[in-house]
Amino acid sequence: MNLDNFWPAFFLTVFAGLSTGIGSLLALFTKRTSTKFLSVALGFSAGIMIYVSFVEIFVKSEESLVAAVGEGPGVWLNVVAFFCGIGLIALIDFLVPSAENPHEMRGVDEMESKNRKLLRMGVFTAFAIAIHNFPEGLATFLAALKDPSLGVPIAVAIAIHNIPEGIAVAVPIYHATGSRKKAFVLSFLSGVAEPVGALLGFALLNVLFNDMAFGIVFAGVAGIMVYISLDELLPSAEKYGEHHLSIAGLIGGMGLMAVSLLLL
Known about the structure:
about 260 residues; mainly alpha
């Protein structure tokens, strides 16, 4: 493990997690959220995460596992760990009630409805986002720890996808309490789980670290990122805008990631 990259990796994770505060500011201090921009940005984020998961992270995790246990078992273990990552984040989704789950897409107008129990919805959404941000923080941190040039686009992608999560927390709390400060603070704090998840993951890996442990965790990270992209980002992109806008963002994200990996 390259500890020289610890602080850059940690600051990237903090940036990604606390971008929920950006979402809350957009919701609280602008007259109207640009849904077309969100659509393209979320598709762009999904493109980055899907491309880097399959082309870079999955390949690196396989290399580590093959080095640890040999080619045949290493390849199989890599695939199993990848789907275990998907299973982990899917289990979290299953355990979080759908009304408060940030992966269950809602439009901004739905979040402003006075007929819902807004305060409860906002608080539980913040709690649900905090739970989801643990593995996302680990994903960002590990990628940046392995290679800062890989961590930067992942951190940007996670940050973009955290913006609508910040909106999902801030809007109902503001309409329930009338307090912009409370809405912002709770939205901001929901992102703190991301660097916390990174530190807990680092503490565990620092004790158990070897090629096998790194390969298994990295493959799981790839699975988590693919699931987030397919289950949250793309449906959210289409919810906020148009199908073709979200696909254009997706392709743009893949293209940028491909070029950056070739150049760096």
